[in-house]
Design the sequence.
């Protein structure tokens, strides 16, 4: 997609926790949006020709030395700027207003009242509305040319504007759902104030991406590691639509997949599937089980699975010979979280963004989904006709069931956890809970205990069920599943899965727990 030519909004990130959410909310208006660190130079910002700029929240106090700041010229480019929370304070401070520490932090749902009726930013917003506040500092005096648009009980400047210069400041967080009119306010900014027409659509993304891939790849060959997860599946289908059998997809079954997963991937991408591509299914199950024999330490298990995966992939790649392009399913949050986009300090080691793996002989990496958020990837997936089941798959870790089996991994334990997990997923779907819970699965504890079944004593495993609600997967709450659903799942697992005599439900949040078990 010719990102350069798109109308776009830039989100300048000051380290706020909602930076990706701001970008998502902008994109809901069909406007393309990218996140950049506040360290990005004015020259680079200008070169991107944004239609508007949003300054995010952040943890600093703008009046302290060394606080994250921006070039004052940013406010004189004639490009509309919207400051949110820290961004609002910074805008005021840089332009000569006053920002001070309040005696008390204003946090949570707060009512604001409009002071003027005709602010373009607040068009359609009722006179009193509930917003989400989270700040210690506040704007105590506005710079010249600014006027108050709204206030709250403890905050004299909840919204301010300098209409003439297209500068707007909001003390609260419109991107958070608790701000009732948040979507409308952002829409007003993006459409009315910045004049964006809203041409960013997933149908056009797929069409343009296919054209671009064709142009880039020419007669070359591309190789894609297909895991069956959403990102690699959508990337593979886009590639196959673009270059057909010039693409080879290697799917490694490491024996640690969920029940029927390998067959499902085969059905979509294999010989009988809808796509024209070279599909290589490698059954490496025994290889992985052999390597994992006797290994109990979690990090060692992860390392072995990762290394063995590379080895298998490398062997298959060698059979193909030199390839020109290696396809990766990198998506936009991977880019941001790797520190390449915004200010996020979180660097996930399992994300390989733009890095060049040295185990395959290729010339260039191709990342067709790089600009997209997860839900946009899903929309492209549906657009391309990928089955819903694949498109809406929940996250599944690379090391698979290997990190959901505590202690040594054996074929028998894999079978147990696969069966239990399949029952659990089936019942959650039946109870219509699958869209409410962000990730749920069964894990196998290494605990065996005494039970009684029929008239017989048993000494069998305990399966543990996990279900979490989370936005960013960095923190998570255990989901409250109705007792009756848990009872049905438990009795089905005990009855249908051999060598399980207890089912436990994990109510630990993250932190202190993690989502996975190892
Ligand atoms: P944790 O267990 O760290 O998991 O709370 C957070 C999210 O990351 C997923 N996860 C992984 N994904 N490779 C992956 O691709 C991994 O090694 C890995 N470890 C955890 C996990 O499923 C959850 O969504």
Sequence:
């Amino acid at each position: 997609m010719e990102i350069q030519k798109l109308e776009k909004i830039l989100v300048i990130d000051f380290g706020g926790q909602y930076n990706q959410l701001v970008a998502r909310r902008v994109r809901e208006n069909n406007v393309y949006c990218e996140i950049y660190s506040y360290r990005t130079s004015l020259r680079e910002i200008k070169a991107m020709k944004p239609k508007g700029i949003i300054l995010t929240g952040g943890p600093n106090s703008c009046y302290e030395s060394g606080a994250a700041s921006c070039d004052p010229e940013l406010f004189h480019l004639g490009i509309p700027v919207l400051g949110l929370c820290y961004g609002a304070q910074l805008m005021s401070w840089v332009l000569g207003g006053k920002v001070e520490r309040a005696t008390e932090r204003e946090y949570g749902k707060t009512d604001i009242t409009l002071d003027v009726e005709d602010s373009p930013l607040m068009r359609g917003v009722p006179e009193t509305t509930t917003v989400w506040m989270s700040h210690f500092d506040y704007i105590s005096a506005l710079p010249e040319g600014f006027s108050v648009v709204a206030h709250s009980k403890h905050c004299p400047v909840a919204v301010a504007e300098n209409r003439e210069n297209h500068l707007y400041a909001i003390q609260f967080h419109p991107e958070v759902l608790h701000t009732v009119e948040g979507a409308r306010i952002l829409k007003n900014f993006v459409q009315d104030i910045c004049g964006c027409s809203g041409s960013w659509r997933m149908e056009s993304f797929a069409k343009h991406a296919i054209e671009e891939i064709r142009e880039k790849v020419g007669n070359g060959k591309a190789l894609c590691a297909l895991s069956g997860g959403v990102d690699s599946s959508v990337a593979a289908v886009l590639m196959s639509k673009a270059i057909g059998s010039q693409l080879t997809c290697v799917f490694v079954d490491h024996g640690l997949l969920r029940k029927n997963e390998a067959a499902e991937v085969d059905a979509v991408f294999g010989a009988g599937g809808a796509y024209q591509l070279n599909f290589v299914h490698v059954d490496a199950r025994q290889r992985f089980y052999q390597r994992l024999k006797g290994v109990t330490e979690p990090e060692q298990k992860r390392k072995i699975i990762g290394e063995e995966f590379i080895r298998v992939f490398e062997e298959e790649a060698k059979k193909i010979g030199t390839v020109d392009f290696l396809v990766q399913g990198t998506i936009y949050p991977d880019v941001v979280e790797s520190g390449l986009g915004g200010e996020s300090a979180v660097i996930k080691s399992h994300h390989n963004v733009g890095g060049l793996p040295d185990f395959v002989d290729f010339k260039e990496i191709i990342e067709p989904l790089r600009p997209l958020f997860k839900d946009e990837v899903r929309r492209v997936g549906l657009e391309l006709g990928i089955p819903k089941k694949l498109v809406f798959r929940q996250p599944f870790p690379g090391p698979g069931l290997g990190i959901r089996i505590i202690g040594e991994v054996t074929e028998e334990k894999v079978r147990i956890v696969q069966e239990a997990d399949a029952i659990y997923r089936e019942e959650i779907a039946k109870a219509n809970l699958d869209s409410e819970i962000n990730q749920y699965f069964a894990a196998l504890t290494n605990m065996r205990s005494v039970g009684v079944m029929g008239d017989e004593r048993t000494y069998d495993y305990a399966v543990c069920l996990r279900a979490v609600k989370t936005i960013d997967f960095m923190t998570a709450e255990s989901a409250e599943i109705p007792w009756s659903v848990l009872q049905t799942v438990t009795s089905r697992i005990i009855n249908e899965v051999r060598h399980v005599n207890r089912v436990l439900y994990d109510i630990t949040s993250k932190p202190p727990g993690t989502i996975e078990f190892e």
